[in-house]
Structure formats: C-alpha cells, structure tokens
C-alpha cells in the first residue's frame, strides 16, 4: 500500500461514518457537508470494494468488513493524533497536557503514587490519567499502546516493544494471621490442597505458569480484578494468595495477614514502562520516561 497515494482525510471520514452509521451525522461530526461526506463514502467503497454501510430498512448497518474496520479506524486516528502532537521541545514547568498511562492497581499503588507526587511538584500543568489495563492486553498490544502514553507491566507478558526497566519485586505467599493449618512456612502440599484467592488478569502469567510446571494446580475459590482486594479476601479464611512483596508489606502493617516465602525459587518480577515506537523521540515522552526512571531510582533505594 502506497501511503503517498492515499488521502488521510478519508481515515477521519471513515471513522465518523462507521461510528455514526449515518452520512448526515458523520458530515456534521467532522464539519463537512452531506454531499461531501457522500462523496467520501463513495471513494471509500471503491477503495475497499465493499459497501461498508448497508441499508437495512430505514437505517444503515455495518457490513462484515465495516465491523472489522470500526475498531481499527479508532486506533488509527488515536495514533495519528499522537503522532502529529509530537513535540521537538518540552518544558514541564510551563506545558499543559495529559498523559494516559495503563497500569494495574498494584503498579499505581507502589509506583504511580510517587510518580504523581513528583509530577505535581515539577510540572503543575501536567495531568496523569491512570487507566486499568484490559484483560485483552496480549491480544493486540500495538493497538493498546498506540492509544496511550505508556503501560506499566512486568516483563514476561508482552514483548517486541520499547521499554525501560523501573524496579524489581518478588512474589510471596500470604495467609490469614490466624490460619489454622499454616504457621511459619507453606509447602507444595499446602498450595495444592488449600483454597486460593487469585488476581484474574494475566500480569502474573509467568508466576502462574511456574506453578503449573511444578505440578501445582491452584484450587481457586475467589477471583478478583484488583491486587489490593486480595488481602481482605484472605483475612479470616483458610485461603492462600500470591502477591507482590512490595504491596504485601503495605498491608501487613495494618491487616491480619502473614507473608510467607514460596517453597521454591519464584520467578523474578521486574516492572517496566512500555510504549509504542511512535513516542520514542517525542520530547514530552522522553521527559515522562526520564521522570519515571528517576522516581524508580528512589523506589529502589
């Protein structure tokens, strides 16, 4: 496909048509007349050799290809907006903009809070928006990264994208402080027979894969979508859970839980900041990444 021969304005028109499913409303949305939008639809139909919008009764519905293009055009528009918003110079003390960062609640609690504090002190016009990473992160990470400014995630889940390492952590087990069967240590047999509370997403995939390699199949009794909900689900029960040590230590100070070493050498956990290559040379993103690395250095210390 020769991009030089394409009219990128059609991308904007395509998104409006697919989302509005109405030529008049799509024209109003992008600020062009109804005849101009009809002409754009005709060009798009010729390009894709597909109707894209098919009239059904008194309204339009997306064709199969139109449905496929619906998500792709949204991602493409987001990427183009970020591409053309790139800056050669960036002064954090005077700039005003928002960074969207994908992260688990663990990453926000352990790292994001300190990052936000530093940004607050050094860049008063900068806003950080932390968004929970979707469970589909491994399906199309390129699309996910193109629509955000960065992703906080450990190594071992995605690859082939630029990243900078931030800090290390460890996986530990924890049980209720008054657990009737587990005291100072936990065994392979305990992990196999006790009920579990688990984090339902995929970020701990390497740790879970390791359990399978050791022949341990967790008997999951409760699954939650927040690492910080794990300790409350442990207290007063026979359950066992797997959690990051940095987060567990925060709860151990005021929750009735006990932290236990794994009965095997657990896989390491190295948190990193990942981004789409389109951001690599953008001055604002360079500042964001350098700030994150600086904050991580304090955290490691």
Low-confidence stretches: none
Portion of residues within helices = 40-55%
Instruction: Please state the CA-atom Rg, rounded to the nearest Å.
Output: 24 Å
- Report the principal-axis shape: globular
Total strands: the figure is 12
Q: How much is the average pLDDT?
A: 89
Largest sheet descriptor:
5 strands, mixed
Helix-strand pattern: HHHEEHEHEHEEEHEHEHEHEEH
Distance between the termini: 50 Å
- Beta strand %: 15-25%
Summarize, please.
Helix content is 42%, strand content 22%. With 301 residues, the chain is α/β, with parallel strands linked by helices. Strands 4-3-5-12-6 form a 5-stranded mixed beta sheet. A 5-stranded mixed beta sheet has the order 9-8-10-7-11. Strands 1-2 form a two-stranded antiparallel sheet.
